[in-house]
Amino acid sequence: ASGPVEVVVDTAKPGSKIDRNIFGQFAEHLGTGIYGGVWVGKDSTIPNVRGIRKDVVAALRAIRVPNVRWPGGCFADEYHWRHGIGPAKDRRVTINSNWGGSTEPNTFGTHEFMDFVDQIGSEAYISVNVGSGTVAEAAEWVEYMTADPATTAGKERAANGRKAPYKIKYLGLGNESWGCGGSMTPDYYVDLMKPFARFVRNYNPAQTGDQAMQRIAVGPNDADTGYTEGVMKAWKGHDWAWNIEGLSLHHYTTGGWPPSYPSVNFDEGAYARLVKETLAMDDLIAKHGAIMDRYDPEKKVPLVIDEWGLWLAPTPGTNPGFLQQQNSMRDAIAASLNLNIFARHADRVRMTNIAQMVNVLQAMILTDTDKMVLTPTYHIFRMYLPFQDATFVPVRFNAGTFKQGDIELPRVDAVAVRDTAGKLWLAVTNLDPARPVRISGRFPGMTVRAARGEVLTAPRVNSVNSFDAPEVVVPKPFAGKAERDGVTLELPSKSVAVVQIES
Ligand code: AHR
């Protein structure tokens, strides 16, 4: 069908809160994700504050990153925090065995990460080393970060430049323990995880009530339900001595393994295959969510999708271990579809972390020495700002489908929210790479005066922003035509629009 798509927004039946943590980020010691991308060192000619790039900080502040997961990833299960504190000249230089065998100078450690999180106005999500570390090492790290300055651990922290305890809002108990984190069975992981959950204590006196540190256990790999069953069963039977406040899920769009979708110069057939695969996130959440519901019908334990995004073939000529890829209009559409799926599952999915923040995988930002460019995915995160902590508003629509070669896809996707100030927003994605679509928005019971916001589109689905041409894919002002209880939006092909519905 090529007629208008009617989107009916039911403002009378608000749904779940869309936790701002759904817009979280992941920053691993991997390639130039930290070194070069965030950290340039205090003596760099690249403008910085205490070694951290000013341009990157300003860009990240503008998208109000709610939390940053660090130091990995696979890196976390081989990270020893003591290598990353104290005078920079004395820090141990190690090898990043997971990612390209590069030299790890450890100049970006605990204090530098906490400074970074503070500069961008975010919360820390620390992943402790369960795979090759010990309970004692993890417990001492969190003690070092959070203990009273009168204690020995707190004095050491103060001697290294920080008197007041740090705040650690989220604590990851290992990473992919079914894979790079130690190839553990679910039962083995559960037994190992419990002492971490018990003994890794947060001593920051300010972290009580809703500020208390939330512990996130390793959960499923894609569709494998072993860890979902194992960890949730253990959680259901947990005693007073331990608890967890989140279950992690990792899922990437890859096109098989090794990742095969190119990040540039792909055609519309490849676009359609990738988008189809991306939409599978919905079933995946439903599948794990159904298991979680059996053990936790009250949805106390959130599903934390702390690694997601497009994992594409590495940019030719780059170190394949650095996971560098370009980011196109296609990536922006995939980001919007994933965010919409998370919003629809907001009762269970209360935190996610796109992989990764800078220069790695589906990044927000690409840098090259002193140059920086914002990716199409970055612009989606900025356009979706009103969704942070907003209330989900149900929408009904019959999207219809279109065919790209042998792949059938929905023509549009749509979600609506009421933001924290009470304003109504509608986000609509036109998945069709070639045809515009007319959206007939209906808001029964409302008199619509205007629909204004932004649209992100590009000449082609494979259009990218480069250092030489940074504004090929950037949001533009966009308005609909208001008429009584409705609004008409003329969406260009391959576009994402986010508009405020004014009444
Ligand atoms: O994001 C890259 C890697 O993907 C992470 O280190 C790991 O957890 C996952 O396999």
Describe the structure.
The chain has helices spanning 54-61, 110-120, 135-146, 152-159, 186-199, 226-236, 268-279, 281-295, 329-344, 376-383; strands spanning 5-9, 17-18, 24-26, 48-49, 52-53, 67-70, 94-96, 102-104, 123-128, 170-173, 214-217, 246-253, 303-310, 349-355, 365-368, 371-374, 390-393, 395-397, 401-404, 407-410, 412-418, 424-430, 437-442, 450-456, 476-479, 481-483, 486-491, 495-502. By secondary structure, the chain is of the alpha/beta class. It folds into two domains: 5-11 and 393-502, Immunoglobulin-like; 20-388, Alpha-Beta Barrel (TIM Barrel), CATH 3.20.20.80. The chain binds alpha-L-arabinofuranose. Residues 306-495 form the Alpha-L-arabinofuranosidase C-terminal domain. Homohexamer; trimer of dimers.
How many extended strands? 28
Number of helical regions: 10
The low-pLDDT segments are: none
CATH superfamily of the largest domain: Glycosidases
CATH topology-level fold name of the largest domain:
TIM Barrel
- The best one-word shape is globular
| Average residue-wise pLDDT | 97
Helix/strand class: alpha/beta
What CATH architecture of the largest domain do you see? Answer: Alpha-Beta Barrel
Q: What helical percentage do the residues reach?
A: 10-25%
Alpha-carbon distance between the two ends: 31 Å
Number of domains: 2
Family: Belongs to the glycosyl hydrolase 51 family.
Organism: Sphingomonas rustica
Keywords: Carbohydrate metabolism, Glycosidase, Hydrolase, Signal
Protein name: non-reducing end alpha-L-arabinofuranosidase
